Amino acid sequence: MSVIRLLVLGAVRQHGRAHGYQVRNDLEYWGAHEWSNAKPGSIYHALKQMAKEGLLHAHEIAPSTAGGPPRTEYEVTEQGTEAYFRLLRESLTSYDQKPDVLSAGLGLMVDLSREEALELLERRLRAIGEWRSAVTEYYTPADGPGQLGHIGEIMDFWVHSADTGAEWTRALMERIKGGAYTFAGEGEPFVGVLADGEENPYATGERHPGDAR
Amino acid sequence: MSVIRLLVLGAVRQHGRAHGYQVRNDLEYWGAHEWSNAKPGSIYHALKQMAKEGLLHAHEIAPSTAGGPPRTEYEVTEQGTEAYFRLLRESLTSYDQKPDVLSAGLGLMVDLSREEALELLERRLRAIGEWRSAVTEYYTPADGPGQLGHIGEIMDFWVHSADTGAEWTRALMERIKGGAYTFAGEGEPFVGVLADGEENPYATGERHPGDAR
DNA sequence: CCCTTGCTAGTCAAACTTGACTACTGCGCC
DNA sequence: GGCGCAGTAGTCAAGTTTGACTAGCAAGGG
Predict the structure, then answer these.
(1) pTM for this structure?
(2) Do B137 and B73 lie in a common domain?
């Protein structure tokens, strides 16, 4: 899975209705441009593509209120909501060594109930365990370890990442069990997006390509 | 950086002269199809693109000796060797949260001298340290932590990954200092590619898309 | 003998990503 | 009073990745 669709759907959903630039700002607010490939081009492409596929509904909108070209606003359709939750559940459950996918899942997990989040993370732990034993059995040569030479370091690195990842997941589950955060159906949700016109307190000031000079 | 170029250059270089299918098999031997995007299409594309850019020299070759369409053999040019070492050094030095890049670097680090590998890993540790303090200072709100809500879990996950990654790097450095593995200029190198016709002892038997049914 | 299966070796279109570029508005300021 | 700068909102071509598809040869079975 590509993480960009999950992020974009999550952002649009939290706004109800959003245009591309708003989504772009939210993702920057989440730091997604640092830990994923969420760049302007990818975001606009994902919006258009998902609109074409019926996951988003595009409203053609009059020229912007704040300067700049006319903008298109998007809303998540029923199909899009389905796709969103499928991607979100997958991001928390599957172990595929891609940290960006988990990061996105963490940022959006509160759209699920607390119980479901815990259940998915439990499944994640099991997936890590299965992956680990498959890899260690498979890549341990019959003539004993060490036959792999330095190539074995690659495997050791994966296994180490899996182990520390599992440990971290367990700690997260404890925090969630301990009542941390506000999940779906638990009252006023944490506001994870920027209101129109609100400035990003974590703005880097960095200019990314895509900004005019 | 994309990891595919590094892997392909490394594989071709170890053969001296190789065709696409051979590279594809080597990368499978290294397990690269599991921890990176090394799929047939990407490999052939990288070969062609790098040939166009002068990093590889393409020999048009007569029909295959073992069935199948005619094949093209490639050799790394001087420019390609330069690019290879640049990518290799970067893969070991830079910390960018992409585990596939480091994995490739580990598999190819023995093309460097032992001292240089250690020096690059030392630089890596420093890079992780700098990254860590930049992130923690930046994303710790003035009103104390906790203001970020569950979004803070993303940051915690990155920082945890950085810390365990640094710890693992230190352990690797100890192994290298302790004399593990055979680096450049230390005699008979470890054979990391498959000879023509040799079968992959770690073949998964899995079929990847790109294989005929 | 011919037909399927399997291996060798690749091509190709569609989707995605990247980074550069465009275009419009308002504001300050010289 | 017009010039440039900063911010808004996006487009676009070039490059990359993906997964499906093609095609040749060999071995074995009925």
Answers:
(1) 0.89
(2) no
Establish if A83 belongs to a structural domain. Answer: yes
Give the model's pLDDT for residue A209. 38
B123 and B142, same domain (yes or no): yes
Q: Looking at the complex, report in whole angstroms how far the Cα of residue B184 sits from the nearest Cα belonging to chain A.
A: 13
User: With helix as H, strand as E and coil as C, how does chain B read?
Assistant: CCHHHHHHHHHHHHHCCEEHHHHHHHHHHCCHHHHCCCCHHHHHHHHHHHHHCCCEEEEECCCCCCCCCCCEEEEECHHHHHHHHHHHHHHHHCCCCCHHHHHHHHHHHHHCCHHHHHHHHHHHHHHHHHHHHHHHHHCCCCCCCCCCCCHHHHHHHHHHHHHHHHHHHHHHHHHHHCCCCCCCCCCCCCCCCCCCCCCCCCCCCCCCECECC
In a domain, B212, yes or no: no
Average pLDDT over residues A111-135: 96
Protein residue minimizing CA–C1' distance to D11: A41
Check whether residue A35 and residue A84 sit in a common domain.
Answer: yes
* CB contact A145 to B (< 8 Å): no
Q: For chain B, how many structural domains are there in total?
A: 2
Asked if residue A141 and residue A61 are part of one domain, the reply reads: no
Looking at the structure, do residues A178 and A149 belong to the same domain, yes or no?
A: yes
Predicted confidence (pLDDT) per residue in B143-178, tens digit:
666 677 898 999 999 999 999 999 999 999 999 999
Say if residue B206's pLDDT is above 80.
no
Give the lowest-confidence range in A190-199, B13-22, B103-112. A190-199
Q: Do A103 and B35 touch (CB under 8 A)?
A: no
Q: How far is the CA of A182 from the C1' of D28 (A)?
A: 65
Residues A59 and A137 in one domain: no
Choosing among B26, B34, B168, which should be mutated to test the A contact, i.e. which has the most A CBs within 10 A?
Answer: B34
Residues B141, B103: one domain? no
Q: Does B96 touch chain A (CB under 8 A)?
A: no
Res B205: pLDDT: 44
Selected residue with higher pLDDT from A171 and B59? A171
Whether B194 has its CB under 8 Å from any CB of chain A: the answer is no
A181-187: average pLDDT: 92
Shared-domain flag, residues A100 and A157? no
Q: What is the pLDDT of residues A140-168, one digit of tens each?
A: 766 666 677 898 999 999 999 999 999 99
Whether residue B213 is contained in a domain is answered as no
Nearest residue of A to residue B152 by CA position?
A: A107
Domain containing residue A127: 113-183
For residue A192, the domain's CATH number is 1.10.10.10
Residue A212 domain-assigned? no
3-class secondary structure, A18: strand
